[in-house]
Amino acid sequence: MFKNAVLKEIGDKYNKTVAQVILRWLMQRNIVSLAKSTHVERMKENFDIFDFELNVDDMEKITTLDTNESLVFNHQTPKTVKMFSKMIEERKR
Q1: Greatest CA separation for the chain
Q2: 21 CB burial (10 A radius; 0-12, 13-18, 19+)
Q3: 77 CB contacts (<8 Å, ≥6 apart)?
Q4: What pTM was computed for the model?
Q5: Which are the contacts of 58, defined by CB distance < 8 A and separation ≥ 6?
Q6: How far apart, in whole angstroms, are the C-alpha atoms of residue 58 and residue 35?
Q7: What is the signed CA dihedral for 67, 69, 71, 72, rounded to 10 degrees?
Q8: pLDDT category of residue 35 using cuts at 50, 70 and 90
Q9: For 76, which DSSP code?
Q10: What is the C-alpha R_g of the chain?
Q11: Residue 17's closest CA among 32, 1, 33?
Q12: Which helix (H) or strand (E) holds 42?
């Protein structure tokens, strides 16, 4: 996601990083985001999204990137469900 050409192009337009574009897109859609970083510079960067606003065209471009597939893993597969079930059971112990 952080190397996506569309997001990079939009970021360049606003002089922002891809991460900042993603956070701003979420904010403009009233979606709470939980950005995580252990790097101070990235933490500062995550807060630096209030000095620009994505226009309607950019918002729509980003929306078209959604493939309804996780970039990490598919939450619907039996393997993933089993993995999470096991994690839940282990935490109960």
Answers
A1: 51
A2: buried
A3: none
A4: 0.73
A5: 10, 13
A6: 21
A7: 170
A8: confident
A9: T
A10: 17
A11: 1
A12: helix 40-47
